[in-house]
Amino acid sequence: MGVMARILPEDFGLTEGLIEEVRARDEGQARLFVRLLLWGCGILWLSLTLLLYAHAAGRTRLAGMAVPPLLGALGAGIGGLPVAILSAVVSWLAYPRHPKAAALERYEAAIAGIRVCDVCLLARGDDTTKEGVSYCARCGAWICPECRTRYDLRAIAAFKRGRRRQGDSGAG
């Protein structure tokens, strides 16, 4: 039996410090995206609700005053797509891709074995292990070949991962 060569970060021009720097930059980009998205949708909801209250003032009874927040939420949900696009553009401009991010992705792909795809787990609830799962430094997640081109599922997973990280940092 042949001995398998051990894959080292140095083979890809990486050090532990560089790996941490790339991951920190990508995590900062993800946090900024989620923060901008949540604040943008929240401000949109509040604005629409206040506009509807102003329009309904003096025209509706007290029971009708419960409708503006619901309509504001519907409007914020519909307006959330442009807010998400703007948040993505701003966060990518604020945190440009690290020059060694591609090398880190190649290194992580080389050491990746059979793993659970983070996108499948967070977006679909599928926790089965898959072959060919590699690490995406931009997303900060392990992604299977099927999900690599599914940006809709990757966005859902990034949103859930961001909300979970916010919950973890807010608890302490």
* Subunit arrangement of the protein: single chain
Write the element-wise H/E pattern from the N-terminal end onward.
HHHEHEEEH
Specify Rg, calculated over alpha carbons.
21 Å
The overall pLDDT average reads: 83
Would you count the extended β strands for me? 4
**Structural class given helices, strands, pairing?**
mainly alpha
Query: Distance between termini?
Result: 50 Å
Taking strands numbered 1, 2, ... along the chain, how are they ordered across the largest sheet? Answer: 1-2
Percent of residues in helices: 55-70%
Strand content: 5-15%
The stretches of 5 or more residues where confidence is low (pLDDT under 50) are 1-5
Largest beta-sheet characterization: 2 strands, antiparallel
Structural domain tally = 2
Number of helices: 5
Q: Give the overall silhouette.
A: elongated
Topology at a glance:
Blueprint: H1 16-56, H2 67-94, H3 101-111, E1 115-116, H4 118-124, E2 129-130, E3 134-136, E4 141-143, H5 151-171
Antiparallel strand pairs: 1-2, 3-4
Helix pairs in contact: 1-2, 4-5
Describe what this molecule looks like in 3D.
- It is built from five helices and four strands; from the N terminus they run αααβαβββα.
- The chain has 172 residues and is mainly α.
- The protein folds into two domains: 14-98, no CATH class; 100-172, no CATH class.
- The strands form two sheets. Strands 1-2 form a two-stranded antiparallel ribbon.
- Strand 3 (134-136) and strand 4 form a beta hairpin.
- The longest helix has 41 residues, at 16-56.
